[in-house]
Amino acid sequence: MLVNRWREGTRARKLLPMTSSDLWDEESALRYDDNSAEMFSPQVLDPTVDFLARLAGSGPALELAIGTGRVAIPLAARGIEVSGIELSQPMVDQLRRKATAEQIPVVIGDMATAVVPGLFSLVYLVYNSIGNLRTQEEQIQCFANAARHLAPGGRFVIELWIPGIRRFPPGQAAVPFDVSDRHVGFDTYDMVTQQGTSHHYRRDEEGNTSYGYSNFRYIWPSECDLMARLASLTLEQRVAGWDGAPFTSDSESHVSVWRK
Length: 260
Known about the structure:
Blueprint: H1 26-35, H2 42-56, E1 61-64, H3 72-76, E2 82-86, H4 89-96, E3 106-108, E4 120-125, H5 136-149, E5 150-161, E6 174-179, E7 183-190, E8 195-203, E9 209-217, H6 221-230, E10 234-239, E11 253-259
Parallel strand pairs: 1-2, 1-4, 2-3, 4-5
Antiparallel strand pairs: 5-11, 6-7, 7-8, 8-9, 10-11
Helix pairs in contact: 1-4
C-alpha cells in the first residue's frame, strides 16, 4: 500500500501552457526527497527497480515525470540508459545534484506531449504521477505519447493507486490515507468529475505545522486499459505491486504493463 499518494508541498499556481498539472516550485522541490523519504527506502525502491530492469532488458528506458531521480538513478546504476521528461525545472535542478545531464538527459515539458529523441524498450510512470494530469484528454495523450516513444515490442508501465471511494460512508467528504506522529494526509474527491485533492499536514522537529496540497484526477484500471487500447497498446500484466502480488478486487494499488 502506498502511503504518500501524491507529490506534495506548497504549490505555485502558475501553469505551463497545454497542461493541467500543478507546477512544482523551488521550495517544494527542495523538500521532496525529505518528505518522501519512505519511498527511497530499499524495501520500496529495490523491488521497483528490479521490476523495471527486467522489462527494460538492455534498454534504453524513458521515465515520465522523472522528478529528482528517485527511480531513474538506481535504474541507470544497473547499466540501463535512462532519459526523462519533467515539467518542473526545480525538480530537475535537484536531480542534477545527483546525476549529470550526460548521465540522465531530461527534457523539460509536459509528459503528455514532450518528445525525447529515439525509441525506448521501456517507458514508465511511477508513484501515481499520471493523476497529475487532471483531464481525461491529457491522460489519453500521455498513453499516446508513451506509445510514440516505444520501439516495437516495448512496454509502458504505470504504478497507480486504487481510489479509496469504497471507504466513504454517507455524508463523508474525505478519506484519510496516513495518520502518524509527523504527518496526516487525506484525499477529497468529486465523484462526478473524478477530480481530487490530496491534503498534507506535517509537523517538523520543532513542532511547527505546515500544510501542502496537490490536485489530481483518479483513473480506474479499466479506464487505463481503454486509454492503452486507443494508443494501440495491449495489456500484458497487472499485479498489485512491484513485488508481483496478484491483483484482486481488494488491491489498493496496481502496477500495469502494456506492450506495443
